[in-house]
Amino acid sequence: MKNQFNLLTFKILGVFLICAVLNSNAQSPLEKTALTKLNELETLMDNARSKSIDVTREETVVWFSKEFLKFANWDENNKEAVAKLFGYERYYTDKKEQMAEELPDFERKKVIQILDKGIEDLQKVLNGEIKRRPVNKVDWQNTKAGDNMFVSNGKPIFPYDYFSKTVGQPLTNTDVYNDHLGALYHGGENLYPVDHDRAINSFLLKEDGTFDEELMKELTGIPDTNIGFLYYWSMGIPEWVEKKEPEIRKGRSLFTGFDIDNPLARDLWGKIIRHTGELTKGKKVTELGFVFANEPHWYSEKDFWTYNYDEMHGISSYTLNNFRSWLKSKYNNKIQDLNANWGETFKSFDTVQIEIPMDTALRGKPIWYDWNRYHMHRTTSWFTFMQDNLHSVNPDADTHIKLWPRSFYEDSRSHGMDFEALTELTTMIGHDAKALGDPSFRDHINSDWHQDYAYKWDGMAILHDFLESVSPDKINFNSESHFLSSGQYRKLDMRTSYVRSIYWLATLMGMDANTGWFWARDPDGSPEDRLEGDLNFFDPGLGGAYAGSNNMQPHITNEVTQVMFDLNSFSEEIIALRKQPRPLRLFYSETSAINSEDYMTQTGKLYKSLFFEGLPLGFVTKNIIEKQDNNSWNTVVVYKTKYVTDAEFEALQSYLNKGGKVIIDSKESLSMNEYGKKRSKKLTAGKGKLIFLEHADITKIKEKALAEVVDIMPDVIVESDNGKDFKTIISRVVKQENGSYLVNLLNVGHDTAKIKLSLKSGAQVSVKNLMTENSLKNEFNLASEEVLLLEVK
């Protein structure tokens, strides 16, 4: 009786304390409602704990509810500051006062929403209506990088967090680093032109060759407790370097503020990398690796938007001389061959000139190809230099680059980024894949996808399938996931179903860890220091990033953690689903990508047409054919690939000679070399199978491709009907050791789809929803953005 009294007293005091802390003024009716529901959920949680039921999910609901009620009160009391922050995003500028006025109650309503769902879900568990697996929590102290996944307590784990967390808060502050928001330690993005927040940058080295020990404390002072990752941040360059090297900023890019070919820049960075690599050797903060660059690209074509941000305003003498040397080797020291190819009259390689940025009218010409192929070579050389220096002192250090997805799936190839070479180079796959939950509010962004799909999934998907094809046995880390918001998209009242679907799909396709964009609330509810005062960032998107972000959306922030809890509860099943082979491969040629105006647009169309057929898609390249087991795929499709080097052509021929299968869409594909010269050779079947089509459309190619893999389609047949003439159900099937099948279904369409599951054998099936332990019939409806993980017997 005494213990019951103490517990009751504690709970009553707790409610009063919450009220006092959350709002010194009179409570709003919505806040009172939320607190009542909060008490109801906590009572249910006590009941569940007494029955040994895991309530990790509800603990997160409670935590976010309390935080956002506090945030709502801050926003209520600081409407002028909130309106100012809304004003930095041009989408909200005209209604910033209205948005600031409505925000506090919007947040309170969403708190009530997540509490209602938390109460409903836990009540179902207590009533025996559903059964849930206990959450497999991330061990933020002891998680390790395995061969191709992170491992926590002997099981696969998918760490999650937010990018660029609030600056100035100690890493031991559990209001910022916890199981709810994530607890990875990392050096965040440098929003100022100089050092901050544990990012490793060029200001660490002084002109006399010594290190700035005060700045170095940002690195050395990180407690060796939680796992994390570190950035090499290359935005700025010290004044003393500029004085010594007047050309140091010539050929800079948006997020690399200096010439990567400059010898002094390389000497500076070599010293910094080696020193910081030694200081952090074996530390937990590097368990998720070193990020070599933030969204690197060097677009070198005229009229590209990055030119407005000082990108590639010409090239330095160092870059030009290196290009001359590369050309000298490429043309075997025969200047007459280069002149004939370019239509020039250079007297020697030492007199070769080129205009950068380059006119896109030259696309498809030899000069265009030579520059852009060399441009990729030079950036790969820079990242090789970085990794070699790091590994010279810390050979076990993991590395990755935050590859910018649009540089892959958009058509331009003037950016210098060879995604295949860079993914082969680093020890982990790195990127910041994005998605759009609704049409973009930027007029120049094409939103035609929304006619067919509930959200824009294809950019994330094609990037994952390409990178995973290049390096299937590497950890895949999205160090700045833009699923919730970006410079192109955000929505204050976002759908939780979208959040669940996109995080699940990305993880299913290979994402092992992610840090979302972004967390910018201090524990008292105020925006972090960098978002206070007058904002004038180099990148204009940063100022408006807070408005409409998940920092204002309790339902969205809660759902991110909830879906990661569920993914981690089923981590072994997710790994099993994504370990499947990729029997159908699309041939990718960097040569055609450089020379063609719309190579990736056309590749994307074929990719989307095959994506919903129940098999993981993949890519092959010359290197993949030469370096990987050709038996790990069944059929290669060549589509709209007019330009290939002789080496690429011979790789395809060698694949056929070993018994491979190749489908070619038309006589145009493979017909030209990298310089647009007609190829006399034709592929032959060898020991394999060669299918030549005559100007076939995507429907015909798809039909032929699926016919070649019909015998290796999954044993579980997934039929879907969404009332449209195109598919929107993503399905994956894998057979388990006990003879049952794991089936994962996602609906990325606007409409509910009718699903029917059957077996090739014709045997009757039983279906169980693994998330609830409830049985299903073999015919059921799958709502828009719904995710199901099933066991089929």
UniProtKB/TrEMBL annotation:
Residues 31-58 form a coiled coil. Keywords: Coiled coil, Signal. Transmembrane segments: none annotated. Gene3D superfamilies: 3.40.50.880, Glycosidases (3.20.20.80). The keyword Coiled coil applies. The keyword Coiled coil applies. Residues 1-26 form the signal peptide. This is Beta-galactosidase.
